[in-house]
Design a protein that fits this description.
single chain, about 475 residues, alpha/beta, TIM Barrel, eight-stranded parallel beta barrel, three-stranded mixed beta sheet, globular, binds 5-hydroxymethyl-3,4-dihydroxypiperidine
Length: about 475
């Protein structure tokens, strides 16, 4: 509902949350039996992460989770999306659960439930056990089975307390940043390996759903568990209606969006994507029955949205051997900047893009329940002399995106919830601690948490389940 003065009201029961990921916040990388992940190795490799930052301590959330859960409760969050660290639960990526790791997540989940915040688990947010990378990493088919084993064990342990289960976060990033351009762990620059990694991540997703459901899809109280995946999706627009620009947009959309939406929600890879990729690799790594496994039904789709891409055809070769690019078999495509405000990541602020993504998914792949599992912005926040942190740009960013989400719901899109990225400033991957996305500021030397202006604003949104008129 939108009132005449611009106030908006979200549907009753709308999920409001904040999201984080294990390696970005936990620290304690050598405690409780945890062993290295690919991100520990990568961050400790000189030159890979800005400023030489690592997740060794990060937000020290492993020791301070009680305080962080209290922050969530103060925000009025109904749900908290966080990831389990695979190397904490299965330090070498195989075998029984590590008791100390499982105890940590039980304590966290219990602390959330005690404050009335529902846990929303992601099984994989990029911290692959290093031992599995040493055995070939995601380009090796075996890792998909290892992931399913881990998912089944984690689910068995926590399913009585956790309703929502997400297999993967942003498999495009894990595959292409990790194995094609090497800007993320494990830092490999092998286009064929990246294509295989994407497939094995998706196969792992399908196998993990089967493994979890094999334990029963209900909790001890008889209520249904809910399973899904989170994809990062952007609209991809051609700069002009020229055929070559439209073809460039088709190819980038295929790599970024449809490579994942197709198999998960339609049970097949788009034929045009396979044709494009054939320039680099045939799809012999896709075995009979794999697409059926990947299409194991999901109960929801999580969407991470940050911006839009506008592209045009370039003059170069589609495949330039030796080029470390995420745009496998589309090295020629050029990305066009627009005259829009940008966040500290350099990402253009484009709230309408969220509407376009949600409506496209519902129209072409739905109907199915959708959640925005991440959206937010990095800005150069500073603590003022009076100890407060004013972040009006983040408030404006979130306000515009929440209003867009509301408009989508009013237009019949089945959007059920929204998680802000992120609860607290944290380790922003290759950018280390130099980018702040949090609703809560973290003073890293002291680990002091300071709720920003946006945190207070967000708690009003959750309390009202809506937005006041702008200005
Ligand atoms: O910090 C990341 C998160 O881990 C995955 N999605 C995008 C965020 C901002 O870059």
């Amino acid at each position: 509902m939108v009132s005449e003065n611009g106030q908006v009201q979200f549907p009753e029961g709308f999920v409001w949350g904040a999201a984080t990921a294990s390696y970005q916040i936990e620290g304690a990388v050598a405690e409780g039996g945890r062993r290295p992940s690919i991100w520990d190795t990568f961050a400790h490799t000189p030159g890979k992460v800005f400023g030489g930052d690592t997740g060794d301590v990060a937000d020290d959330h492993y020791h301070r989770y009680d305080q962080d859960v209290a922050l969530l409760a103060d925000l009025g969050a109904t749900h908290y999306r966080f990831s389990l660290a695979w190397p904490r639960l299965q330090p070498d990526g195989r075998g029984p659960l590590n008791p100390a790791g499982a105890d940590f997540y039980e304590r966290l989940v219990d602390a959330l439930l005690a404050k009335g915040v529902q846990p929303w688990v992601t099984l994989y947010h990029w911290d692959l056990p290093q031992a599995l990378e040493d055995a070939g990493g995601w380009p090796a088919r075996e890792v998909a089975s290892r992931f399913a084993e881990y998912a089944g064990l984690a689910y068995e342990r926590l399913r009585d307390r956790v309703v929502h289960w997400t297999t993967l976060n942003e498999p495009w990033c894990a595959a292409y940043l990790g194995y094609a351009d090497g800007t993320h762990a494990p830092g490999r620059t092998e286009p064929v390996a990246a294509v295989r990694a994407a497939h094995h991540l998706l196969l792992g997703h399908g196998l993990a759903l089967q493994a979890m459901r094999a334990h029963g899809a209900r909790g001890a109280d008889g209520t249904q568990r809910s399973f899904g995946i989170t994809l990062n999706l952007y609209p991809v627009d051609p700069l002009t209606e020229r055929d070559d620009d439209r073809d460039a947009a088709r190819r980038i959309d295929g790599l970024f969006n449809r490579q994942f939406l197709g198999p998960v929600l339609r049970g097949r890879y788009p034929a045009d994507l396979l044709d494009d990729l054939a320039l680099v690799t045939e799809a012999e790594h896709v075995h009979d029955g794999d697409e059926q496994t990947i299409a194991e039904p999901v109960d929801f789709l999580g969407i991470n949205y940050y911006s839009r891409m506008v592209v045009r055809a370039g003059g170069g070769q589609r495949h330039q051997p030796g080029t470390a690019s995420v745009w496998v078999a589309s090295n020629d495509v050029e990305f066009v900047s627009r005259d829009l405000p940008r966040t500290e990541m350099g990402w253009e602020v484009d709230a309408q893009g969220l509407y376009d993504v949600l409506s496209r998914v519902q129209r072409e792949y739905g109907p199915l329940p959708l959640y925005v599992t991440e959206n937010g912005a990095a800005y150069a926040d500073e603590v003022a002399a009076d100890g407060t942190v004013a972040d009006p740009l983040r408030v404006a960013y979130l306000d515009s995106h929440f209003r867009t989400a509301h408009r989508a719901i009013a237009d019949g899109i089945d959007l059920r919830g929204y998680f802000v990225w992120t609860l607290i400033d944290n380790f922003e991957w290759a950018w280390g601690f130099s980018k702040r996305f949090g609703l809560v500021y973290v003073d890293y030397p002291t680990q002091r948490r300071i709720p920003k202006q946006s945190a207070r604003w967000f708690s009003e949104v959750t309390r009202r389940n809506g937005l006041l008129s702008p200005g």
